[in-house]
Each structure stands twice: as structure tokens, then as C-alpha cells.
Specification:
Layout (H helix, E strand, L loop, with lengths): L8 H17 L7 E8 L3 E6 L4 E7 L9 E3 L5 E6 L4 E6 L4 E7 L5 E4 L5 E2 L5 E11 L4 E3 L3 E6 L8 E6 L7 E3 L5 E4 L3 E4 L6 E5 L14 E2 L11 E10 L11 E10 L5 E8 L6 E5 L2 E8 L2 E6 L4 E7 L6 E4 L5 E5 L4 E6 L5 E6 L10 E5 L2
Length: about 375
């Protein structure tokens, strides 16, 4: 605004005061902020500003390292982490590292382990995990039925289970749909209603019906970093044989995936690309659902509409998982060691690195977008 000498001094002073006030507010009138979250040994949650690729803050997690599994609240302001050897769950406000939630799952006579499985309800009021309980008798251990356990988040630092429902064994990564079904990643993909315990089949894997020439898939639900595309994604390996004699040397080997749209709860299962190298995890480009990226010893880019691998970039060491910025332009590859490798999604060229204080091992790599 241009000031002229027609303004009286009082008006000028008022304008300057208003301008100063607007200047003070301006830093908060910013675009949505993206943060990258992961856990490192000995046991710390790192919140990384993705606009600078610098660590914004580090939160100390009680107990020994678990698996580094992280679930976000729907508004992305709170992170829930499996800790203490995956026996306990802790929640943090990622804006200041305040601990707001604690659920100690075991007792002197019952040991409870949650393998990777943690998610938050669609409305942010409940937390879900799959418990694998073992009862401690005087002379033996008794392996009990796995169960989906439900906690009220508002119970805060003394959260207790409010209800449970029996589920299958072998369930690891889970996620919540907009309809508040919990996707269960196990031998098959199933969904459970956490209010009633009703379970439905989402995508058959171990029990699929592709015929005698197809090898039942070997699925891997260690990570599902699908928040940028609002999906649950599980890779698998399978083979198509040329006869029922199952000659593994002449079979066609394929990578495939089961992918669930978390908005609708609908799923697709498809063979994606020929099996040429190991991939631990897939993520989808938020701009194009046909473009996938994978990581392990390589970072790779694929067009599943053409069953083609578009590019492969050799990595400096093994990385277990990966995630992507909201605009789809930058890929972050992490897990395993103490560095996150940053890449251009178009070329896969390395454009940066983020050094952490310890190794990530099996930790998730989560993107949290906090709305302005």
C-alpha cells in the first residue's frame, strides 16, 4: 500500500501498527507443512521438516526399541509408536514431543506382543493393534488366540483395552479405511469391523483361486507406506508355470501387489512387473496410480499399466522402505541404517541425504502433512 501525505499522523500510526501485526502473523499463514517421521535406535522418534530435509525435533521413546512401527492421527499432529520390544504403545504430539498416550499391554501373567500392527480410527478417537498374547503358567507358556485390541485415545497415559475380537495369526501391518474398517495384512487381506468384530475377505492371497499353473503368492506386510495415495499396499511374489509339473526354472516369475483404496475399501490384486530383483516395499506416485516405486538394494520405478520397469538406481546399501512427497517429486528411502537417501522421482538420481543419530532397522518412514 502506498502512503501519501494526506494521511494524518494518527492514521499513519494505525496503519503501521496493523502492518506490524500482519507481519507477525504472516509466518503462520503458510502452505501445508510436510514432515517425515521415523524411529532410530536406541529409541527416538525423529520429525524431519521436508521443506529443508532437516530434523525439526527428536522425541525420546520410553523402553527399548521395538520395530519402529508408526501410526498417525487423522490430522497428522500425533504419532503412535510401538516400543519396548513391541509390547507397549506410546503417543506423541509431533509439534512439541509431548507424550500424550501410553498403553502397557502386558501383565505379570500375560505377555503381549504386537508385530508391526498399529493404526488409528478414521475419527481419531480409537487406536487398534493386533495382540499376540502368551499366558505364563508356572510350568509352561500357553500361546493364545491373536486378537484385535481397541483403546480409547482419550484415556491418555493410562489407556486400557476396551474391547477385543479374535483374528487370524500372521497379521502384521494394518490400516483403517474411511468407513472405519481395519485392514488386516496376513496370509490373506481381510477387513474387520472394530465395533462388531465382523470380518470380510478383501483380497485372497494364500487362498487365491488362479488355477493350478500359478504359485500361491509369498506376500510381505512389513511396511505399508501408502498415506500419500491414501492406500494400503502389500507386495507379493508369484510364478506362472508352463505345466502342472511346476518347473521352477522355466516359470515366469512376477511381482504383484494387493492394493486397498482406503477411501472406499475397494481392493485390486494384480501382477505388476517381472521379478528381476528384490523389492521390500512399493509406494504409489500420488500423481499417477500406475507408477510405482520400490526399494531394497535398488530404487526402482515401474509403470504397471505396461508391466514395465522404467528406471533402476543402485543404492549405496540396503534400504527397507521408502515414501514420497505430496507433490510426487521427491522420494525418501530409509530403514536399515542411519541415513535417509533423497531422490528425484523423475530420474531417480540422488539429490540429498539425511543423517540420523542411529540406525532405523525395520522402522516405518511416514509422511505427516499438517494442514495450515
Amino acid at each position: 500500500m502506498k502512503l501519501t501525505n494526506t494521511f494524518k499522523s494518527a492514521g499513519l500510526a494505525g496503519s503501521l501498527v496493523m502492518g506490524a501485526a500482519l507481519s507477525a502473523v504472516a509466518p503462520y499463514a503458510m502452505a501445508d507443512q510436510e514432515y517425515l517421521l521415523t524411529v532410530t535406535r536406541p529409541n527416538q522418534l525423529h520429525v524431519i521438516d521436508m521443506s529443508t530435509n532437516e530434523i525439526a525435533r527428536t522425541c525420546d521413546i520410553p523402553g527399548p526399541f521395538g520395530t519402529g512401527s508408526i501410526a498417525m492421527s487423522p490430522d497428522n499432529t500425533h504419532a503412535y509408536v510401538l516400543s519396548n520390544g513391541t509390547k507397549d504403545i506410546y503417543g506423541f504430539d509431533i509439534r512439541n514431543c509431548d507424550m500424550t498416550f501410553k498403553a502397557e499391554q502386558s501383565s505379570p501373567t500375560l505377555q503381549v506382543i504386537s508385530m508391526q500392527s498399529i493404526t488409528v480410527s478414521a475419527d481419531g478417537t480409537e487406536l487398534y493393534t493386533v495382540q499376540n498374547p502368551v499366558k505364563k503358567h508356572r510350568d509352561r507358556f500357553e500361546v493364545m488366540q491373536p486378537r484385535l485390541a481397541v483403546f480409547n485415545i482419550e484415556d491418555g497415559m493410562n489407556a486400557k483395552v476396551v474391547r477385543t475380537f479374535p483374528v487370524d495369526r500372521r497379521i502384521t501391518k494394518i490400516a483403517t479405511t474411511a468407513q472405519n474398517e481395519v485392514i488386516l495384512g496376513g496370509a490373506d487381506l481381510k477387513a474387520i469391523n472394530p465395533e462388531t468384530g465382523d470380518i470380510r475377505m478383501v483380497s485372497k492371497l494364500a487362498n487365491w483361486e488362479k488355477g493350478p499353473l500359478w504359485l500361491p503368492p509369498d506376500a510381505f506386510a512389513m511396511h505399508s507406506q501408502g498415506e500419500q495415495a491414501n492406500e494400503y499396499i502389500m507386495p507379493y511374489v508369484t510364478a506362472k508355470f508352463d505345466s502342472e509339473e511346476w518347473n521352477f526354472e522355466t516359470a515366469e516369475w512376477w511381482w504383484g501387489m494387493s492394493r486397498v483404496d482406503l477411501e472406499t475399501g475397494e481392493a485390486e490384486r494384480v501382477e505388476t512387473i517381472p521379478f528381476e530383483f528384490i523389492i521390500f516395499n512399493f509406494i504409489t506416485d500420488p500423481r499417477d496410480s500406475n507408477i510405482l516405486y520400490g526399494s531394497f538394494n535398488t530404487l526402482s520405478k515401474h509403470d504397471i499399466s505396461k508391466n514395465e520397469t522404467l528406471a533402476v538406481h543402485e543404492l549405496g546399501h540396503t534400504y527397507y522402505d521408502l515414501n514420497i512427497s505430496g507433490d510426487g517429486k521427491t522420494i525418501y528411502v530409509g530403514g536399515t541404517s542411519s541415513d535417509i537417501s533423497v531422490h528425484d522421482s523423475e530420474t531417480l538420481d540422488k539429490i540429498g541425504s539425511i543423517q540420523l543419530t542411529g540406525d532405523m532397522s525395520t522402522s516405518d518412514l511416514r509422511v505427516a502433512t499438517i494442514k495450515d
